Amino acid sequence: MSKRTKKVGNTGWIRAPHGIRICRRVLDLEPSRLRRAPCSKCSTVTFARKASGIFACFRCDTTVASGAYLSTPAPPVTRTERSAAASQAVGG
Fold first, then answer.
1. How far is CA 31 from CA 25, 28, 34, 42, 83, in A?
2. Residue 43 pLDDT class (50, 70, 90 cuts)
3. d(CA 77, CA 6)
4. Averaged over 16-33, what is the pLDDT?
5. Considering the domain boundaries, does residue 85 fall inside one?
6. What would the mean pLDDT of 23-33 be, rounded to a whole number?
7. Tens digit of pLDDT for each residue in 45-92?
8. How many helices (DSSP H) and strands (DSSP E) are in the chain?
9. Which of 5, 8, 19, 60 is the most exposed place for a label (fewest CB within 10 A)?
10. 23 Cβ partners below 8 Å, 6+ apart?
11. Alpha carbon 35 to chain centroid distance?
12. Are residues 8 and 19 in the same domain?
C-alpha cells in the first residue's frame, strides 16, 4: 500500500477542501509554529504559541502578543533628536 501523504506530510487532511497550495503553506509553517523559543524574561526555552498571535512562557507566565504564527521580538525603542529647524518652527 502506498503512502497517501508523501508530499504534504501530516497536513494531508487539509488537501481536499482547501487545495494543495494552502496545504504546502501550512506544511512550511508547522515546524516553526510548534518550536519553542527562549523567553526574554527568564531565558529558558519554554516560550511557545498559546493562541493566534499570543505567546506565553510556561515557566514564568509571561504573555506577549506577536505575529500570528511566529514569535517576532519587538523592535528596540529608540529616541531620535529633533533637528534645530523643526524645534524653532514649533517654538517660534
1. 11, 7, 5, 24, 47
2. confident
3. 46
4. 84
5. no
6. 84
7. 888 888 888 889 889 988 988 888 877 776 666 777 666 666 566 655
8. 3, 3
9. 19
10. 8, 11, 12, 14, 15
11. 10
12. yes
**Residues 23 and 40 reside in one and the same domain:** no
Handedness of CA 44, 76, 48, 58 (dihedral sign): positive
Residues 41, 14: one domain?
no
The C-alpha cell that represents 56 in the structure block: 506565553
Q: Coil, strand, or helix at residue 86?
A: helix
**12 with 50: CB under 8 angstroms?**
no
Task: Indicate whether 80 belongs to any domain.
Answer: no
The range of the structural domain enclosing residue 64 comes to 36-72
* Same-domain check for residues 7 and 19: yes
33 within 8 A of 47, measured Cβ to Cβ: no
